[in-house]
Amino acid sequence: MLGQWTLDSKAQAPLGQSQDNWIPLTKDQVHDPRGPGLSELQDPGAGLFELPPHQSGNRVLWAKALDRGAISPRRSLTPNESSKVQVLDMDVLLDLRGSMAVVRFPHKIHTQWLACDNCHDALFKSKVGETKISMYNILQGEQCGLCHGSVAFPLTECSFCHSVERPAPKWRMSQ
Amino acid sequence: MKRWLIWVVLGMSLVSLSAQGEYGDVVLNRYADKAGVRPVVFPHWFHRLRFTCNVCHAEGGFKMRAGSNDITMGEIVDGKFCGMCHNGEIAWSAEFCHRCHSGRPGLAGGFYGSQDPSGPSGGGDFYQRRH
Hints:
A: 2 domains; B: Cytochrome C3; 3-stranded antiparallel beta sheet; globular
């Protein structure tokens, strides 16, 4: 079961993960090991070890876990609200003039987790090009960095976002 | 002189790294220490396995920047914030104090195990106290 995740995973993760890859609550230095509640709580390893593996963040690929049905998180608490939550399948290409690979922003994955108003229009204007996005802001926890780096996959995974290669420079093509 | 300074900075960064936590863990300690209970540790990973982000961050009224939500036990018991689920119906009720109030006493609020998205604006008094 686990092998099927790893075979087509781009990430260089070990084949299958053991629960020991995560720090148990009693040793994470955040929880008080003397606290009476710890034995009643789930350890990260127990909850995460069967999900598609990755080497950073929570050590799992959350989007893939959701896409493959490895997890089925509840989308809403009230039935009325769930009809408002809609998946939008639209990619937006960003950073067209930089030197890194172009950013492909997939609305689909984001709207599988989030509602439109989580990002629009406070963090990002709905119209493409109206919001100036920069790595300076992102690295400081603004824009994409409000989630990426703290909860969503970390900012060390450049190629997850900068994923569309630019055409080779002209001097190279002429050779 | 400069070398000495580097060692001090390195040492300080090691001390701050000692509290690791899982990626996305948030410690809430605006009121807990003062009230004589352990600070709250909120594990994003645990909740993400069971709910999508919008449930808390759109329906539930949790603003996405850590520190920008003023959460009190009174509101939780009234069914707001954590109390939206932690009411004995969807998740365990607020009677199980020690399951949430499980952090090391004295821990500063904020993210552990991942970056703190305080942003250039600083994130309000929550961050003023920490940094």
